[in-house]
Every structure is written in structure tokens, then in C-alpha cells.
């Protein structure tokens, strides 16, 4: 279990900068650097040695990522956020395992090229034994955040670097990895270490929350606005209330050694019986807990009661009647795996920001209503990412630790959608499974219910949904009992609901109940961030290989109308990655035939329209021929041979028609 150091006990997390990790001149080398240099000499390393440039093979790297799956999953969002804060400053963000082997990295292209010269890339070990004094290896050895600047590096080859690294520890205090920012030593900034430490703590808190599935986890702080931030304390207890562990800030706020905490319970630490905690979360809208710690200090708290054997598993009870709770507990699905839970939390609104002003406006609006119990209606064509936005809203909301339940109202047969949504009791249907089934609405209790394609919901069912939203009560089919439910609602549709209301296909009263905040996702063809989107998709689909798209293919992407939007683009790139294999650039030969047919049709249509305009403007035949050739040249990236083949003429004809090419 994690045991806080004396330094940590004497200062809270807000004391970011430590004297021993600030850059120093030759006459003021920090002790941590001197000690590390002595170890480097003892390892038999020569300062002038050439670094080992051999990274792990592709299969070995995949195995490394799999062995560190939980760390990798929780670190990626923090790495992306950290990188966004330092982008275009000649930096890179690095994640390593407990041995200093780089698991993942991202950064500015110009600096990545420099970093590759000293093997600062995935699959390479940066322990002190292999690289001498460096921020990653020294942070692992010393178990403290470490800055190694310029010639403080032991190997001369690394003197151009400045590196800020913070160890990542598990709930037992064991170092399981390192988060590092490396850059050209001329780009050093004193705030970089603070950002790295904050990001490492964010990862540790996420890992801590994911570790204790069958437990009571309490988030607490003396100031309520700090709950849900890096400043909060987190402590976990068994379902019976026995202390399990706490994060760094939790240990600091509790003010006891880990050994002393072993004899404590939730009740002795926070002055509240566990039964009272359960009662608090049986209410429909539980607020913050008001707790009195053993020291007499009053704190505010929020608990997640993720218990595998009851419906409290997401922090809220589905019923105020204990018999109902016991009966329903057998129907609640088992908790998802750590990896699945982590994957659900990967997407946040900040990761959707790719530079498009229309999407930026959507995110700005959504951020203003998070946690305010305002229903959100997402409009947009098929494939524009409506469910991705809904998941991001959930992950950034106060209900992030609760379930996210998605229901596609268009894909479930009309005869089954009512039982899917509301559930049913034993005996409600002939041949149905014993003990009935809990519906999607109750599964979403304490979290977010996402109703996709709400415009296709059967008209008769819309009245029942409206009653649930107004009364906050669900009555399963075949039951006489209503169960209190507390959900955040997000709906999505590609229909114009006003038109469907006019046709009598959608209830007006339900429309205005859902119409809290309406946002519209732009189709891909109208967005200005296509290049960035392509890079993100490639990084997601092939995280272990750096793929790029050839310029002529990118031009085709910009010409295409993308009727299937992001779903179509993602499927196309996924196929192209498979076709490219070990080639790192996606080219024309990797494109599927149907896409190329669409592009030819688009170009032909554009050429025809251009010809019509030129005829109307009185252009002669020679001018029209030249226009067609120039458009084809542009489509083929200026390649004269490819243009000649596409037009069925010789290269000489191209040069004759367009003399300035010679």
C-alpha cells in the first residue's frame, strides 16, 4: 500500500516546484544528479558511448502495451491533454513502463525526428542502467519527479535534451510507469514539470478509482468545489466499511500513516455509519455528503458504491424499498472489466476539439449545461458522431463514474422496444426468462441514458417515456410497483422532429421535454478540420504504427462528399491500414475501388459543371481543354504521367496543351 513520504506530509499537492528538480548550472548541480552520475559510472557506462538504437519489434511492442494495458488506457487521455498544452513548442510526451521502456509517445514532428536520433521512441529502454542519468531512469530509481537538463544527462549524445519526468505509482506506492516531457534544451520552461506532475497525479487517481470495483469509494475535500479535481482525497472501503486504501491527497487529508489507517473503518474516519451512507444514496437526487473526519475537520464528500452484489454499484439505488433492491440485484449485469471501464472514460469533450469552429461552438454550449439536469438533443446526419459526443458529455459530467447506456430506437423491433426500455417482471411474457429483466432506463440509473434515433420511437411509447421523464419513476411491464430512477438524458436524431410532429409521428409535449439544449453536428464535408480528423483516426486505429496519408489522397478526401461521414472515413482508413501493412504511407493503391469510383464521378461532375460555365462565358475549345488538364493534374498531385494515363493522351500532348509545364 502507498506510504506517503515525509516531504509529501509536510506540503500539499499545490506545492508544485521542488528545489532539487530545478535546472542548475555547473556550480550548483542538484544532489539527485550527482548521485545518479555516480550510479552511471558504477554501471560501466561511458559518457561518449553511442546509444543503442534498436527498438523492440512490432510484436514485442504490442506485447509490452498489452502487459501495461491498464496504465496505457488511463494514461492516453492525460497525455493528449498534456500535449495540447505544449503543442508546437518542440516537445514530446512519453509514457514508459516500470522499467523505463517507452510504451507510447506523441509530439511535434520536427522534434520527433531529433528524438529518433537518440532512440527516444517506443520500444526503447531509458533506464539508468542503459542510458545513464536521464529523467525517466532517474525518476524510477529515486521515485520522485526529476528534471534532467542539457549536460546533466550522463551520455553526451543526450545533452541537447531537457526532460521532466514524474513516476506513476499504483495504490500500493509501487512505481508502475513514468510520464515524461522531453524537448530541445533551448525550449526549457519552468512550468513544464508542474504540468507533468499534475498529469501523473491525474493518471494515478484514474487508476486508483479503477482498482477497487467491489468497494465504496469516497471523494472528499474541505471545499466542495475541489471534489472531482486533482485536489480531492479518495479513499476506498469494503462493502462493510473496512479501510482498503487512499490516494496521495487522501492520505494527506486524513493525516494518518497507512499502518494506522488499517485499523479504521468508514464510520471511524468520517463519523457516519455505512448504513446511513446507503440510505443517502437511495434518494432520487442525493447531494454531497457532509462528513466529520476523526480529526474534527468537516469535509464534503461524494461516494461511488460500486458493489457487485447490489444495485448500488454505480452510486445510486434503484428503489427505496429494500425488497425491491434485493430482487433487482440479481438482474443487474456484472460490472464491466477494468479495461472496458477505462475505455469508456477515454473520450472527453476536449478530445473532440480538432479546430473546426462549428464543432467548437457545439462543445462550448454543451460545457455550459454539464451537470445541470438539462436534456440535450443532438441533431446530425448519420455517421457524424452523435453517440461519440454523447459519450464525451457523459465522461465530462458529474455522472462520469455512473453507467452510460445507449439505446438505438431504430434498430430494436417495435414489439420489443418497450420491454427493452422499461424491463419486465417474471411472467410478463410467455417464454421470457425467469425473474424478468431490468430495462435500459434502470440500467442507466445514476448515469446517462442515450436514446439514439429518438425520432423513430413508436408513437405510443413516447407517452410512457414522457411520464418517466416527468415523474422520475419506472414501472416494469407486468409490475404494479414503480421504481425511482435518476438519469441524465441525451437524445439524438437525423430527422427533423418538427416535420415529424407536423405529420403526427412525434409527440409535441415530448419534443419540448427533450428540447433543453439542441446542438447540431456538422457533416464531414462541411468541416474545416479534415486533416486533423484523419490523423486522429489513424492514431486510434493503429496506435503502434505512425501512418501518414499521401498528399494526392488527402486532396481526394477534400473533394469527396462523404455521405457516410466519420463512419465511412473510419472504415476506409481501417481498410487502408490493413492494405498498407508495413508501408507507413497510405497511397492510391491502398484505396478501395468504390471510393475511387466515387472520386472519378465527383471529378467528372465538377469538370462537366466547369465546362458548362466556360461555354456560358464564351470560352474556346483550347481554353476548355487546358482547364480539364489542369484539374486532372491537380487531382494527381502534379504527376504528368498519371494525368496523361487518366485522360488517355500522351505526355507530349499534355505539355503541348499546357506549355508552362515545360
TL;DR of this structure?
The protein has 662 residues and is α/β, with parallel strands linked by helices. It contains 28 helices and 21 strands. A 5-stranded antiparallel sheet has the order 2-1-5-4-3, sandwiched between helices. A 5-stranded antiparallel sheet has the order 8-7-6-10-9.
The count of β-strands is: 21
Query: What is the average per-residue confidence, as pLDDT, rounded to a whole number?
Result: 81
Strand content: 15-25%
**Shape label:** flat
Q: How does the major sheet shape up?
A: 5 strands, antiparallel
Order of strands side by side in the largest beta sheet?
2-1-5-4-3
User: Strand pairing plus helix content: what structural class?
Assistant: alpha/beta
Please mark out the parts with pLDDT under 50 across 5 or more consecutive residues, or reply none.
1-27, 309-346, 428-434
Assign a percent range to the helix content.
Answer: 40-55%
Q: First CA to last CA: what distance?
A: 74 Å
Using the CA coordinates, give the radius of gyration.
29 Å
Number of helices: 28
